[in-house]
Amino acid sequence: MTLRFDVRRRLREFTLVAAAEIPAGVTLLEGPSGGGKTTLLRLIAGLIPPDGGRIALGERVLADTATRTFVPPDARNVALVFQEYALFPHLDVASNVEFGLRARRVPAPERAARVRRTLDRFEIAALARARVTELSGGQRQRVALARALVVEPAALLLDEPLAALDPSTRDRVRGELAAILAGIDVPTIFVSHDPSDREPFGARTLHLERGELAR
């Protein structure tokens, strides 16, 4: 499946104009802070509408200003992992991972089975009843990824997922995350400003600066 977008969105200091085809696998999205990277992810996820253009995932159109098509975020099957992970501090690990399945009204027996498999996959089953406030940065990242992937999304968006980690943890978690993403066959956009991310996450790279996208 391929993610395609050709969108325009007015921002305070410039207009974001971005067009690309994102195949299955990891594509790094690089560029300086404030260049429009997070805005592009929010457009794809449906958190904000484009001022013009079109977004499609496979044969499904998610947004098209010409036809006034706009699929809401909860119906897009696109998972977005925020830089600070946005986990629910009042819930334990298992409940955080289960959240998206509940929102989709997945039956309880299937929810339990999928959560269990996903916790095992990310090697956090022993933390199932821990509160996220008790976890390390690397563990919180695993929970955020587990919550995103348990719903089996058709596309995955990662907004600087290593930025919240201290340097020593970042180096270790980078390798772990690369191994996880290597087994996920969906279009994945990985926002980064760190050149160290290029080698482990693959060669496909886009550069976004002041709203202009380049390869």
Summarize the structure.
Helices cover 31% and strands 27% of the residues. It has helices at 37-45, 93-103, 108-121, 137-149, 167-182, 198-201, and strands spanning 3-10, 15-22, 25-30, 52-57, 60-64, 69-70, 78-81, 155-159, 187-191, 205-209, 212-214. A six-stranded mixed β-sheet has the order 7-8-9-3-10-11, sandwiched between helices. Strands 2-1-4-5-6 form a five-stranded antiparallel β-sheet, covered by helices on one side.
Oligomer: single chain
Give the SSE order as H and E letters: EEEHEEEEHHHEHEHEE
- Arrangement of strands in the largest sheet: 7-8-9-3-10-11
Shape: globular
Give the helix level as a range of percent.
Answer: 25-40%
Structural class: alpha/beta
* Mean pLDDT score: 89
Q: What are the segments in which pLDDT stays under 50 over at least 5 consecutive residues?
A: none
In this structure, how is the largest beta sheet organized?
Answer: 6 strands, mixed
Number of strands: 11
Helix segment tally: 6
End-to-end CA span: 20 Å
Strand content: 25-35%
Q: Which radius of gyration do the C-alpha atoms yield?
A: 17 Å
